[in-house]
Amino acid sequence: MDLNRADVLNVLFDRVVFNPYNQVDHENDKNRFFDTEIDDFCDAVDHANKALADCKYYDSSTIPFRNFSGTSFFFNNIDGFQSNFKEFQNQIINQADNFDFYCFNETNLKSGTNHDFTIENYQSHFLHSIEGKSKGSGLAIYCRNNLKFTLNKNFTFRNNFIECLGGKLKCDIGLVNVIVIYRFSSNTMIRESITELTSLLEKISDQPSVVLGDFNLNTLKCDDDTNVQQYIDAFMCCGFAPLINKPTHFKGQASTSIDQIWCNVFSENTSSGIINCATSAHMPIFASVSTSSESIFQADEVNLNNIKIHNVSSRTIDKFSSAIAHINNKYVNKIELDPCISPTACTDQFNCYYSDIQNAYNDCFLDTVDISSKRNFVDKPWISIGIAKSCKIKNQLHVDWINARTRNDPDIENIELTYKKYRSKLTVLIREAQTKYYKKRFEKCSGDLKKCWKVINEMRNKRKSVSFPQYIEFNRQLITDRRIIVEKFNDYFVNIAKNLNESKPETDFKDYSGFLKNRVEASMFFKDIESHEIDSIIGNLNPNKSSDMSPRVLKIFRNLISPNFSTLFNNCVYAGVFPDVLKIARVIPLYKSGDRNSINNYRPISLLPVFSKIFEKLIHARVTSFLDKHDVIYHKQYGFRKRHSTIHALNTAVTQVLHSLNNNHTVFGVFLDFSKAFDTIKHEILLDKLEHYGIRGNAYDLFKNYLTNRKQLVFNGDVESNLLNIQDGVPQGSVLGPLLFLLYINDLVYSQCSCKGSKCKSNCLDVASFILFADDTNLFVEGTSVQQIIKKTNAILSKLKKYLEANYLHINISKSKYIQFKT
Beta-carbon neighbour count of residue 633 at 10 Å? Predict the structure, then answer.
């Protein structure tokens, strides 16, 4: 039977192990504890003993991530980030998952040095190297962004004996100390360094803790070396147990176990191991430590590694083509224009055809894959299959070298030379592949600054994180169950408006209609939808955007489905119906800022069915044409409008300020930010405003139906919340949502109007210059003195406050600012 590289190491060092539990006598130790503590002590010793006994070597592709229960830790003395960090990154391409913590000794990273030693979706903490010392110091901790970890100054220090970097992780069992230590390799003053370690350990002995590091004391010599015995006793007397029992460091023909993970939190699920990885002379070590408690919410087991994919191939396309032909034949003479169609008949007609198309698509294209079985999503696309195989060969050569040193092989020099030559050539090859990859990326986005910066940020590992929180804090409880997390998110999102308004007395909300001025007397006429419009919209869909149906597939079959959908959409307009099946949103919580484990710091992004977007685009084109014709939208509103941008808004603001300053006036700029603006819109107020702006008859009925009976769920992978009704707001991620928001706040500038009646007959708006970009409201007030401007600004804000209260809008005080411009 062929052995893999890790198996070779396990055979080589099967009897070269460290196990201090051989000396533990459970029966005698029972006398040291009260009766209630006996079982706990024995269980802890058994768990620690088992974890240490089960410790073995793994290849990077065989690490048992799926068996991990709790928080996982990786440690490596990397012997210089500059030399070996890239190698470390390349080694993890074969892993099916990642650790929660990556910890390093000997980073040799100097303070003030710009670097790109980052891991995507991880926060980083450093203790920089000793000034003037090129090697042998510097620590680093990388922690997943969605974990609540903070550095602690009591664990971050350096003296003549050790250096230490650590903090506290907030998890189910409370606060867990995570500490990385490096004991300087000098053989002098060993006892002093152990005294320093003991002092630290005594402070944390009664707290859950994980201590990782290179201690430069070989635990394999525990029976022969009194210094090693004192080092082990220092930890074990403070309640810590080791998790690594085999050699981790190889130099010349010597193999030692100087890298260690110590822990005082144990369960039957605690596990550990050593990774056969040639990043440095030290092999990385890892451990999985249980950080959950029995009081945590329990739910049915969920496979979060399963994801749905759209399997588009010639076979599935042919299958769908046959299905479409069958469906269209089924509906011949059944889908026809009917200006007098009833809402019920219209809904039934649309649902039948749409569900047949949807079911056929799902049957032909949707597949479920398990992403845990192998690394489907490679973080480094320049690593080809060939390079990945070369990495495995290099690792095998590394094992051969270790094997030769251990057995005093006479040909060891040739074996070492073969390994190092291969490693050197592979390093050059990987660098060339990376350079070639990014060169092509830059060539493709030539002339597009936005795309260029996206590539640059990828190179700097600055891509935006979309990670889902591993736990949330809710009512002073930590919730880790993802089913409950998505339910809490959904409940929070649908009740945003209700919760905001509960804090304000009902008397604050006065009549909003008094701010509506300049009614549009003309009524919108909704012209019929043509099939070529749908054809064009489908043709322009972004093929890279995710949806319930792949845009690539719809583009192929648009000529076959556009005629029927144009008829169905026209009937929807006649009946004033926006089909309920198109109003179900799948919501992704998008992190904004602040504490990642607080649901308050996320906003909902709605993923709607692709045919919902198509119908909305058709409606949007007709409504904006009408609004533009009648100059409805405030002319200094620069958000969500064609031929309007932030550049125009900035140019208008700069021109306004410069004009005032040139007239020797002082200018105040007030910059207001709304809280949850899209989510707090009141539907009844919005509908009144639509009618005021000329959207009446069938168009009005269509929008009323669009806002009625909307539902949403929050999802993460295969985990979905229940559907909840949406009572307020417009969906973020929809086509019509931004337009409806603009119409909702379009009368904001008339908060300054004091004219009686429905028309503004004077220059009320001249009191200040309002410049809007969606919900970002900026106003500029000028005057001859600061006192005059303050008085005017307060009067403007007082009137604006009444408008916001009447329209159920809320100012985010913490994000609202003001500034004085002067020469």
Answer: 19
The span from the CA of 217 to the CA of 21, in Å, is 18
Which DSSP string do the residues of 668-713 spell out, in sequence order? EEEEE-BSSGGGG--HHHHHHHHHHTT--HHHHHHHHHHHTT-EEE
Which of 201, 248, 256, 234 lies closest to 55 in space, CA to CA?
A: 248
Cα angle at 543 between 537 and 544, to 5 degrees?
A: 135
Query: Pairing between strand 285-289 and 602-607?
Result: unpaired
Q: Are 256 and 402 in contact (CB under 8 A)?
A: no
Asked if 183 and 166 touch (Cβ cutoff 8 Å), the reply is no
Name the CATH superfamily for 5-289: Endonuclease/exonuclease/phosphatase (3.60.10.10)
Phi, psi of 366 (to 5 degrees): -80, 130
pTM: 0.64
DSSP per residue over 131-167, as a string? Answer: TT--SS--EEEEEETTSEEEE-GGG-EE-SSEEEEEE
Q: Are 775 and 745 contacting, i.e. CB atoms less than 8 angstroms apart? A: yes
- Running along the chain, 823 residues long, what does each successive block of 10 average in pLDDT? 59 63 46 42 68 87 79 93 86 66 94 81 91 90 89 91 93 87 85 91 90 94 87 87 91 86 86 86 91 40 58 89 96 94 96 96 82 48 74 82 80 88 88 87 82 80 64 78 92 91 65 88 95 95 81 93 97 97 94 84 91 97 96 90 86 90 92 90 95 96 97 90 94 91 93 78 72 89 92 92 91 91 85
Q: Is the dihedral of CA 545, 549, 555, 558 positive or negative?
A: negative
Q: Which CATH superfamily is domain 630-682+732-823 in?
A: Reverse transcriptase/Diguanylate cyclase domain (3.30.70.270)
Unique residue bearing structure tokens 């996206």: 454
Domain boundaries, given as residue ranges, for the chain: 5-289, 385-459, 630-682+732-823
